[in-house]
């Protein structure tokens, strides 16, 4: 999958593990992902969560015939982070024909939970 020129490249998101049952992605906490007060921006956490859910859905579909797009996401930010790296781990809660729902937990370098998210991803047929 080409990540050049995408938000993944811009924010430094890397995929560590990708399977149909689990996705692990990391993202640095630096000038690209901090808000003006020096902490990880909640929006950056949401981008990381949706990225993991979308990649997981991609791993579950017929990639020749279908594509995945985020449909809904929520996030609870539980702890602030000022530096280091955060890790998102996504697991599927529901695998349907037209949607998948993912549970995503984001942790810091000390394995402390900083954000929990749930993301619904739509599965669409590619145009012929």
TrEMBL record:
<dbReference type="InterPro" id="IPR029069">
    <property type="entry name" value="HotDog_dom_sf"/>
</dbReference>
<protein>
    <submittedName>
        <fullName>Esterase</fullName>
    </submittedName>
</protein>
<dbReference type="InterPro" id="IPR003736">
    <property type="entry name" value="PAAI_dom"/>
</dbReference>
<dbReference type="GO" id="GO:0061522">
    <property type="term" value="F:1,4-dihydroxy-2-naphthoyl-CoA thioesterase activity"/>
</dbReference>
<comment type="similarity">
    <text>Belongs to the thioesterase PaaI family.</text>
</comment>
<dbReference type="InterPro" id="IPR006683">
    <property type="entry name" value="Thioestr_dom"/>
</dbReference>
<feature type="domain" description="Thioesterase">
    <location>
        <begin position="37"/>
        <end position="115"/>
    </location>
</feature>
<dbReference type="GO" id="GO:0005829">
    <property type="term" value="C:cytosol"/>
</dbReference>
<keyword id="KW-0378">Hydrolase</keyword>
<dbReference type="Pfam" id="PF03061">
    <property type="entry name" value="4HBT"/>
</dbReference>
């Amino acid at each position: 999958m080409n990540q050049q020129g995408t938000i993944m490249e811009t924010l430094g998101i890397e995929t560590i593990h990708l399977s149909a049952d689990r996705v692990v992605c990391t993202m640095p906490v630096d000038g690209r992902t901090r808000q003006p007060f020096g902490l990880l921006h909640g929006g950056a956490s949401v981008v990381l969560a949706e990225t993991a859910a979308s990649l997981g859905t991609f791993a579950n579909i017929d990639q020749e015939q279908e594509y995945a797009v985020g449909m809904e996401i929520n996030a609870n930010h539980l702890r602030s982070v000022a530096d280091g790296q955060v890790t998102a781990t996504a697991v599927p809660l529901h695998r349907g024909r037209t949607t998948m729902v993912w549970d995503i937990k984001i942790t810091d370098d000390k394995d402390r939970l900083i954000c929990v998210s749930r993301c619904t991803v739509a599965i669409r047929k590619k145009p012929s």
